[in-house]
């Protein structure tokens, strides 16, 4: 390259060479997806046993999945955890009565 190519054609200042950018992290990585799956599993199991602790755990896993980029599955896990947790608690109360 000629020395003129390394200078600004308008002002003559030397041009800085740019470093290649690091690849952007992929949205919805495996860890976010895994947290979403854990959330859905906790939600489904919370109907059968330990509805309140598993529903709370499902909500926490769902929120972690959303924060790591897996928005749809994470939101599904949160909604299912809340709904199935409430259904599990009501079923437990009705079983005792």
Folded structure, characterized:
There is one protein chain. The protein has 97 residues and is mainly alpha-helical. The chain has one domain. The radius of gyration is 26 Å and the shape is rod-shaped. The termini are far apart. The model has no long low-confidence stretch (mean pLDDT 86).
Q: Which percent band covers the strand fraction?
A: under 5%
Sketch the topology as an H/E string, one letter per element: HHH
Portion in helices: 55-70%
> Which residues sit in consecutive blocks of at least 5 with pLDDT less than 50?
none
What would you call the shape? rod-shaped
Distance between the termini: 87 Å
The overall number of domains is: 1
Number of helical elements: 3
Count all strands and give the number: 0
| Rg calc | 26 Å
Please, what is the average pLDDT? 86
Report on the biggest sheet. Answer: none
Overall structural class, as computed from helix and strand content, comes to: mainly alpha
